[in-house]
Amino acid sequence: MNILVTGGAGFIGSHTCVALLEAGYEVIVVDNLCNSKVDTIDKIKKITNKEVVFYNIDVTEEKDLDSVFSTHIIDGIIHFAGLKAVGESVEKPLEYYYNNLVSTMMLCKLCKKYNVKKFVFSSSATVYGDNEIPFREDMKLLSTTNPYGETKAMSERILTDIAKADSSLCVTLLRYFNPIGAHESGLIGEDPKGIPNNLMPYITKVAKGELDKLCIFGNDYPTIDGTGVRDYIHVVDLAEGHVAAFKNITPGVHVYNLGTGKGTSVLQLVKAFEEANKIKVPYEIVDRRPGDIAECYADVSKAEKELGWIAKKGIIEMCKDAWNFEKNIK
Ligand code: NAD
Ligand code: UFG
Fold first, then answer.
1. Mean pLDDT, the chain, integer
2. Is the alpha carbon torsion for 307, 144, 230, 327 positive or negative?
3. Closest ligand to 96 CA?
């Protein structure tokens, strides 16, 4: 089976390529490398000892993308390609709406032309908004606070409407919680360009001495220690969630949370990182970051019941693997 993986050179996409190849699927990656490096493709090959077809193509460019569909028989798509920095999306809303929505629609258009029926989409816990925890797939979604989140909510609606109009389509919407960690080989992981926005890559840069200290955004939230609580999931578990989703894909629209179901505060994550890696992470408490919510974790029972998938790796392993990868970055 050939799976087209858009954004397969990125953080979650590269780990998913490894998981798919190890499960016996063939992988065709399309990525324009706007937030990733081409070496990642060689690293995927090195880890799995398997071939990967790679195209440096922008998913919003119809002619280029059409040539991929006309060259290969594609059995299904996992669509990761997208811009994901929340703050940047507020400054450059048009880029975010254009890239994230046109890419999804272009893929749908070509799926129709080439009769591709299976579509797995990278959504986000951000679509729940500031809802009651734990977040359940059947909850009414609340408004998102930034253009990035809006592109995820809108893509979900677009895919849902397209699937409603064609009952043979199989659409799975995966709502990720907070992926961290890296492959145990230390070859692939999260390597954002510039100063990281997300907590774990910031922590690893501080530990490495590239940044002075971590700024913790607020310690007055109604949480266990006042700092924000999130559901961190090891990226390798998340990648395996995609294989389970693809194996179990059926007609209609199906939504799954991919998380661990457990909340960890910022301070708890910092302490776990220090303990796991025997290294200090200096930090300072600063003001809350606008748009952040206090607490977010998943109800993961639906994915367990219907996909037979559950996250296995704990916070200490996530911290060790994230650091192991960071130490390898030149
Ligand atoms: P990433 O930036 O590492 O990977 C995205 C990849 O898509 C990159 O390699 C980038 O070069 C590529 N890309 C972007 N626009 C493209 C285009 N128009 N054409 C071709 N390639 C393009 O991000 P990630 O963390 O691996 O996230 C993957 C997906 O999961 C994204 O859609 C993201 O919004 C979603 N997601 C991520 C998180 C997270 O915390 N990392 C949480 C929820 C959802
Ligand atoms: N945080 C800090 N300091 C930092 C970075 C983050 O204290 O330098 C805190 C945040 O305030 C929050 C927690 O660490 O409490 C996690 O923040 P991240 O930026 O790592 O992650 P978010 O939960 O804000 O958002 C992430 C992705 C979104 C995605 C969401 C899904 O960035 O794209 O998870 O749950 F939608």
1. 97
2. positive
3. 1
User: Which of the ligands is closest to the CA of residue 286?
Assistant: 2
Residue of minimum CA distance from atom 7 in ligand 2:
216
Three-state SS at 118: strand
Q: Is the CB of 238 under 6 A from ligand 2?
A: no
For the stretch 285-307, pLDDT in tens is 999 999 899 999 999 999 999 99
Measure the CA–CA gap between 108 and 94, rounded to whole angstroms.
21
Tokens of 149: 């989140």
179 lines ligand 2 (CB under 6 A): no
Known catalytic residue: 148? Answer: yes
Determine if the pTM surpasses 0.90. Answer: yes
How far is residue 72's CA from residue 54's CA, in Å, rounded to a whole number? Answer: 12
Q: Does ligand 1 come within 6 angstroms of the Cβ of 14?
A: no
Q: What is the pLDDT of residues 4-50, one digit of tens each?
A: 999 999 999 999 999 999 999 999 999 999 999 999 999 999 999 99
Check whether 220 has a pLDDT greater than 80. yes
Confidence of residue 274 (pLDDT cuts 50, 70, 90): very high
Q: Identify the structural domains of the chain with CATH numbers, from first to last.
A: 2-179+233-259+299-311 (3.40.50.720)
**Catalytic choice (128, 148, 232, 297):** 148
Residue 80: pLDDT over 90:
yes
What are the tens digits of pLDDT across the range 141-176? Answer: 999 889 999 999 999 999 999 999 999 999 999 999
Confirm or reject: Cβ of 175 under 6 Å from ligand 2.
Answer: no
The closest ligand to the CA of 11 turns out to be 1
Atom of ligand 1 nearest to the CA of 192: 3
User: Cα–Cα distance between 322 and 325 in angstroms, integer?
Assistant: 5
Amino acid at position 98, single letter: Y
Segment 190-209 mean pLDDT: 94
- Cβ atoms 159, 171 nearer than 8 A: yes
| Ligand 1 pocket test target in 80, 159, 200, 202 with most atoms within 8 Å of CB | 80
Amino acid at 267: L
